[in-house]
Amino acid sequence: MNLAGPKSREVLAGLTGVDLSVAAFPYLAVREGEVAGIPARLMRVGFVGEWGYEIHVPAVSGGALWDALMKAGASRGIRPFGVEAQRLLRLEKGHIIISQDTDGLTTPLDVGMEWALKMNKPFFVGQRSLSAIAKKPRKQQLVGITFPAGYSGKLPLECNLVIAGGDIAGRVTSIAFSPTLGHAIGLAFVRPDLATPGGSVSIRLSDGAMVQAKVSATPFYDPDNKRQKDEPPAGPVTPLVSASAGAVSPVAEGVAATLLEPVRQPAAAQVLGIADMSRSARIGCKGPGATAWLQALGLPIPAQPNSWLPLDGGGLIARLGFTEFLVEGPDALIAPLAAAPRGPGVYPVLRQDAALVLGGSRLDELLRQTCNVNFRPLDPAQRPVVLTSMVGVGVTVIPETRNGRPFVRIWSDGTYGPYLWETLLGIAIELGGGAVAPHSFN
User: Fold this and answer.
1) Regarding beta strands 273-276 and 434-435, do their DSSP bridges make them parallel or antiparallel, or are they unpaired?
2) Same-domain pairing of 80 and 113
3) How far are the Cα atoms of 155, 168, 215, 423 from residue 198, in angstroms, in the given order?
4) For residue 239, is the peptide bond before it cis, meaning its omega torsion is within 30 degrees of 0?
C-alpha cells in the first residue's frame, strides 16, 4: 500500500517502531519492521511526488493493515485515492508508466533513465545490447511538453503524432490538464533534434489539425524533489481549487463554430436552444466535514441529497449525494470560498466541467432520445438533482422551468464536453433549434 502526503509520517509513526526520521530513513531507503503488529517492508518511495511510503505485507494481512491505517489517519483527514489521481500526479513528476510511455523497443536511454543503469557491472541481461545501442545515434527521446495557461484549443490525445517537415517525428504518450500547475502537460517521444527544452513541436490531432506544444524539462512539479526528500511541509491545508469565470471552456471551439446569428437566437431558444456555461466559476467538495464547513462559510445546505438551492447574488449549491457538493456562481461568490482553508474532513473535488444549458418547447423530445430518465414526472419546484447519463456520458442534471418552458442545466466531465455538445446540438438543430448565448433564455 502507498501511504502518501505531508502527514503520512505522522500517521505511520503511531503504528511502527521503525525510526522514520530523515537521517535514519532517507528517500529511496528500505527498512523492515512491524506496522500495526504486522511484519512489513517499508520503502521511502512514492509515485505521486509527495512524502510517502510503500508498505509491503503478506497478502493475508492486507485488510488488517488497511483498517489500521484508516483508523490511525482518521484525525488527520486520511482518504483513499484512486488510480486516475495517481496517474495525474505521477505525470506532474514526469514518472513514466511502462507500456504507456514505453513500448517493446524502448530502452532506458530513450527515456532519460541512464541513472538506473550500472554499465560497469560484470554482467546483466541486456548489457551487451545497451552498450551497442549507446554507441549509435539516438533515434528518439522522451520529453515533457506543455501548453500555456489559458490555452483554448483542443488538446492532443495519447498516440497523436508529432510532425516535423511533413514527416512523423514522434508521438504523444501521456497528456492531461494539471490543476496544480494550471495548464496542460504531457510526455512525448520526439526526434533528438527536437528535444531541447524551450523549443516547440507540432502535433497532429485526430481531426488533422495541428497544434503547437512547448518542450519542457521534467519534473513539471517540484523539480528539486524537496517534497519527497526534505522534512514534510507544514502549514495550513491547501484551499480548494475553483474553476474561474475566466477559465477555458472545453467546448469553446464547438460553440464558436456553431453559434447562431444574434437575431436568430431568441427564436431558437423558444424551440430548443443549447448554450455553454462552462466558464462560470464553481468549486466542488465532499467528505464528512463538508456540510459543517460550507455552513460556517454562510452557505445554505439543501436538506436532502440530490437537491439544490439558489444562492443570493446568483448561483446555486447542489447536494450530490450525502456529503458531496457543487457550488456555482459569479466569481465574487466563488473566489472567497475557493480561498478559504478547508476544514477537517473536507476534500476538494476538481470541477473542470463542461456546463451546458438547454431549454425550449421541444426539450422533452431531446431528453427522451438521449437519456434513460423520464424527467416529466419530476417537479422542478422541488429542485431535484439527477445523476444519470446522456448519450453514454455521465452527467448531473437540474431540471427547471423558465418563462413557462422546460429548461435543464447539465454538467459533465470536460473531457467529454466536445462530444456532448456536438451530439446534443445536432439533435437540437434537427428539432428546429440551435446554439445560442445563455441570455437568450431570459
Assistant:
1) parallel
2) no
3) 19, 20, 5, 38
4) no
- Best CA proximity match to 79, nearest among 344, 293, 338, 305: 344
Domain that holds residue 174: 95-216
Q: Which three cell numbers stand for residue 163?
A: 510532425
Q: Is the same domain home to 182 and 77?
A: no
101: its cell numbers: 510511455
Q: What is the CATH number of the domain that holds 101?
A: 2.40.30.110
d(CA 36, CA 57): 11
- Please give the Cα distance from 245 to 312 (Å, whole number): 18
Alpha carbon distance 327, 311 (integer Å): 9
Q: How far apart are CA 401 and CA 359, in angstroms?
A: 9
Q: Is the dihedral of CA 107, 109, 90, 38 positive or negative?
A: positive
Query: Of the candidates 407, 374, 417, which has an alpha carbon nearest to the alpha carbon of residue 271?
Result: 407
How is residue 301 written as a grid cell? 445546505
* DSSP state letter for 217: -
Element (H, E) at 334: helix 331-339
For 348, the grid coordinates are 476538494
For 178, the enclosing helix (H) or strand (E) is strand 167-178
Distance CA 418, CA 402 (A): 26
- The reply to whether 244 falls in a domain is no
As for how many domains the chain has, the answer is 3
Digit-coded pLDDT (tens) for 308-317:
999 988 899 9
Q: Are 110 and 101 in contact (CB under 8 A)?
A: no
Contact 309, 302 (CB under 8 A): yes
Calculate Rg over the CA atoms of the chain: 25
- Rounding to the nearest 10 degrees, give the CA dihedral for residues 85, 89, 94, 100: 0
pLDDT digits over 388-436, tens only? 999 989 999 999 999 899 999 999 988 889 999 999 999 999 999 999 9
At residue 50, the 3 state secondary structure works out as coil
- Residue 292 is placed in which grid cell? 459543517
On whether residue 229 sits in a domain, the answer given is no
Tell me the residue length of the chain.
Answer: 442
- How many other C-beta atoms lie within 10 A of the C-beta of residue 439? 10
Q: Is 414 buried (19+), middle (13-18) or exposed (0-12) by CB count in 10 A?
A: buried
Task: With a cut of 70, say whether residue 242 has pLDDT above it.
Answer: no
Whole-prediction pTM: 0.58
How far apart (Å, rounded) are the C-alpha atoms in residues 189 and 103? 11
Question: Residue 45 maps to which CATH number?
Answer: 3.30.1360.120
